[in-house]
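Table S2 (continued). Query chain:
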Amino acid sequence: MSHNSDIRTYRDIRYYSGPDAHPKKHLLDLYLPREQGSPLLVFVHGGAWTRGDKAAYAGAYEQLAEGVSARNVAVAVVNYRLSPEVMHPEHARDVARAVAWLYRNSSTYGWSPDRIYLVGHSAGAHLSALVAVGPTYLKELGLTPAIIKGVVGISGVYDLTLGGVTARMMYEPVFSSDPETLSEASPARLVKKRTTPFLLLYAQNDYPSIDVQARRFEKKLKEAGTLVRIQMIPGRDHVSILAGMAREGDPVRKLVMGFVKP
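Corresponding output:
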């Protein structure tokens, strides 16, 4: 149970139970405030599509979720299958399954189905953006991206066709080297019309080209008429930018909370 008595915690809830269901990766954790009808923040972890788990980093995601939930925002921390066990588009399909399950079970747990926000870090920011702008992921579950109220991308990659040899070495085992696949897996290349609002954050000392990725994606979103805000967080790196979300008064927490609870 949670450290905070006002927060209800549900662990290891299965959001997908099809024939290929994974024993650990098709699970999510919920951190719910007492207040009914709150917004829901769906957190998608990073790890280059090959590592990471909702229980990783000695409960860091739990701390983040409890901090946000204490402010009357429900939080779901989701797992998804990883490479090399699966390849694209399976990671994004899993995130979409989790979102669909959360949307359809909102009345059971008490958050508002009209206020579902995705918050992704690193590879999780890529997957969150992909599910929100890619037309197929929610559609195959009988829903549309319109159920997503907004997306926060923290230190994400949004165009897999950019980047040199190192980037390609990282993408190939996950997405293949096929240029068409890389393009179709790039949120920045899928934005054709106005989408849900975006908040794009990156760190001053982030990985190389993360700033370029954010600014190019911002440009594409703006061209399509999407509401988008972009912010560089000073004095942070790729990991410490996310840690800020767990702390009251931190600029990252303030920006995210201002976005999901305007």
